[in-house]
């Protein structure tokens, strides 16, 4: 049996990974390639999965990150997915907070047990956010740098939000970190999807396969990755490799809030717009009392988007917020007040 190609979609929270994933799924479907997906979310619900083709087999790994807290589950999920659905190819979308090095290690471990072949680490870079973070520094910038370093393919996204000189600066930043991976500048991740071709086993790319099973500290990643595989990890933990309490994205937290009823669209939008800057990603499904419709909302770094939807099956109204050290209780109270006011 040939090894099943694995493509990892990496990139910071809200950078455009799901936007890319949907295009890749359509690309495979058009070629009759059977694709399966593993989606990983820090929150308790997989909202992105709602909008991926429902025919595609999908394993959801929720409430943790596959690079640390639920890393051990990845092998099992991959094995079950492959045995049950026998896909031609598997796409893994990690949480934006994940360090790709740790996921690569996890996939390498899985390659001990099954014939898989990590072909691509496509990192979606949020252009404007990288620029902003590069000026501030900090842990998040460090994580973004690691995601860029370890990429085999770089997609610099949200070019529509960058002035020409900013776009040049972003590309320079990215190139300083990873000089070799092909780089494409995109709006909504519209990119030549040839990197995901079944036949395109580019020998210059990192290859972690069943034929080269895990030797932690010895795997190959993006050409410019200067990671010390045994001793350095991009996010904030203290070398506790067992996923215990000391190993976490200490600076990243998620709040999942189930809404108990419809909310007023203006009040909800106002709440989203005044989110503290520590919340850098939010998404969810809401029912608006004043329009009698359900909407998916997406918020990333100050920009909000509402899309009218008709979800399949039973889908709760829910909002997920991801950020650094924000006041969860204050936000919970404000959300509760929205539905409470409406019911009262
Ligand atoms: N302006 C702009 N918005 C974009 C672009 N690409 C994606 N978005 C929007 O950015 C938001 C996040 O996109 P996603 O594809 O869900 O990002 P993601 O990386 O999967 O997000 P997480 O799974 O939360 O990490 C959505 O509202 C998208 O519509 C782009 O090129 N320009």
UniProtKB/TrEMBL annotation:
The protein depicted here goes by the name GTP-binding protein
- Which residues lie within the region annotated Disordered? 227-247
Q: Which UniProt keywords apply?
A: Chaperone, Hydrolase, Nucleotide-binding
List the catalysed reactions.
Answer: GTP + H2O = GDP + phosphate + H(+)
Q: Start and end of every CobW C-terminal domain?
A: 252-339
Q: Which InterPro entries match?
A: CobW-likC_sf, CobW-like_C, CobW/HypB/UreG_nucleotide-bd, P-loop_NTPase, Zinc-reg_GTPase_activator
Task: Tell me the protein family, please.
Answer: Belongs to the SIMIBI class G3E GTPase family. ZNG1 subfamily.
Question: What Pfam families does the entry give?
Answer: cobW, CobW_C
What is the organism field in this record?
Paenibacillus lignilyticus
Which intervals carry biased composition (Basic and acidic residues)? 227-244
């Amino acid at each position: 049996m040939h090894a099943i190609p694995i493509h990892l979609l990496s990139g910071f929270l809200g950078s455009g990974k799901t936007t890319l994933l949907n295009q890749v799924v359509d690309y495979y479907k058009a070629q009759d390639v059977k694709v399966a997906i593993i989606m990983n979310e820090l929150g308790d619900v997989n909202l992105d999965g709602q909008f991926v083709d429902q025919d595609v087999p999908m394993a959801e790994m929720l409430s943790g990150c596959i690079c640390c807290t639920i890393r051990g589950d990845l092998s099992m999920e991959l094995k079950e997915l492959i045995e049950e659905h026998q896909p031609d190819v598997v796409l893994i979308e990690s949480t934006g907070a994940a360090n790709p090095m740790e996921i690569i290690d996890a996939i390498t471990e899985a390659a001990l047990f099954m014939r898989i072949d990590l072909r691509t680490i496509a990192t979606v870079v949020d252009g404007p956010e990288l620029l902003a973070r590069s000026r501030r520094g900090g842990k998040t910038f460090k994580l973004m740098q690691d995601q860029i370093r370890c990429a085999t393919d770089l997609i610099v996204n949200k070019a529509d939000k960058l002035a020409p000189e900013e776009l040049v600066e972003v590309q320079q930043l990215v190139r300083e970190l990873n000089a070799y991976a092909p780089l494409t500048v995109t709006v909504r991740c519209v990119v030549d999807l040839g990197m995901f071709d079944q036949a395109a086993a580019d020998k210059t790319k990192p290859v972690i396969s069943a034929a080269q099973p895990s030797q932690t500290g010895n795997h190959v990643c993006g050409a410019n990755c200067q990671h010390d595989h045994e001793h350095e990890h991009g996010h904030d933990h203290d070398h506790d490799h067992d996923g215990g309490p000391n190993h976490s994205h200490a600076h990243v937290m998620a709040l999942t809030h189930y809404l108990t009823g419809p909310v007023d669209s203006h009040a909800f939008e106002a709440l989203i717009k005044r989110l503290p800057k520590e919340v850098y990603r939010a998404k969810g499904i809401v029912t608006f009392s004043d329009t009698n419709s359900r909407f998916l909302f997406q918020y990333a770094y100050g920009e909000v988007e509402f899309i009218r939807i008709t979800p399949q099956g039973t889908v709760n109204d829910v909002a997920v917020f991801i950020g650094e050290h924000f006041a969860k209780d204050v936000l919970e109270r404000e959300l509760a007040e929205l539905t409470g006011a409406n019911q009262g």
